[in-house]
Amino acid sequence: MKLKEVYEAWLPIKERQVKASTLSVYKMIYTNILNPIMGNEDVENLNKKTIVPFIYKLMEKDGQSSKYCNDILIVLKMLIHFASEEFEINVPDTRWKMTWPTKAKTGVSKIERYTNAEYKRIVDYAIENPSPRNLGILLTICTGMRIGEVCALQWKDVDLDCKMIHVNKTMERIYDPDTKKTWIEIGTPKTTSSDRYIPIMKGILSIVKRFKSVSNDDYYVCTCSDAPIEPRTFRNYYKAYILEKVKLDHCIKFHGLRHTFATTLIENKVDIKTTSSILGHSDVSTTLNIYVHPSDKAKRDAMNVGLKRIFK
């Protein structure tokens, strides 16, 4: 049985099992990567000896990242396993693990963040110049919400009595490689842990109260209307906000607001578990490995404190 035949049978089932954004990723991987090379291959022949050179070529000659290649491998193994389960085809064992080439391991990249002084300027401008979009930026850098989460946030998710924000949905622009069309979808958060409650800090509570008092519960926080702002448009506004309004000399990615929030908490001795819970991570190692990069000052202070007795 050809891999493309397995894919055609597998796709309708996956459509009922995963989010539209996840399905879109699967489709793009198959359409752009797997089908051109392996679509006409018999699934019975897709063993480790066939797949490993294919993956290595993607990394070494085509320049694909090890993370993306791992996603490709996951989809390919799902298809092979599906062929075995649904069509009782005698396929090769898929339980083997890939050994990634050393040169493909680039390590954890350091995500950009704003300095404490820049952080304060971003916050101060939003408070001094209140608007729904500025509030969205303020909430992002003061709660660590992802851009899709803050764009999907409605006033009914903001509980002023408990001083909590309930993150229970996210907004995404979905691309369908079959139709070449995109659409906006509001759905469940990224993971189970992403559905969470985040405290509203004292410093921004008054401005949150001011906007909620003039908004309906079904209104979106970033627009104070029944029409949301989509992530792509909000990113464009954020860039203008940083460069033209706050007048910083550089603008990092929107996700850097989340990274700045997380790193600032850690540098101010907030424990990792609490920070991880606020960010919506299922594992504290994610917080440590991806978001937390102590500053040179923090590392220097830690060494001076830790070794001070040696040099007395």
Automatic annotation (TrEMBL):
Q: Which Gene3D superfamilies match?
A: 1.10.150.130, Intergrase catalytic core
Please name the GO terms that the record assigns under molecular function: DNA binding
Alphabetized, the UniProt keywords read: DNA integration, DNA recombination, DNA-binding
List residues of the Core-binding (CB) domain. Answer: 1-84
GO annotation, biological process: DNA integration; DNA recombination
* Tyr recombinase domain residues: 109-304
Record-annotated membrane-spanning stretches: none
Q: Name the PROSITE patterns for this protein.
A: CB, TYR_RECOMBINASE
- Family to which the UniProt record says this protein belongs: Belongs to the 'phage' integrase family.
Kindly give the InterPro entries that the UniProt entry links to this protein: CB (IPR044068), DNA_brk_join_enz (IPR011010), Integrase-like_cat_sf (IPR013762), Integrase_catalytic (IPR002104), Integrase_recombinase_N (IPR010998), Integrase_SAM-like_N (IPR004107), Tyrosine_recombinase_XerCD (IPR050090)
Question: Which protein, by its recorded name, is this?
Answer: Site-specific integrase
Question: What domain of life does the native source organism fall in?
Answer: Bacteria
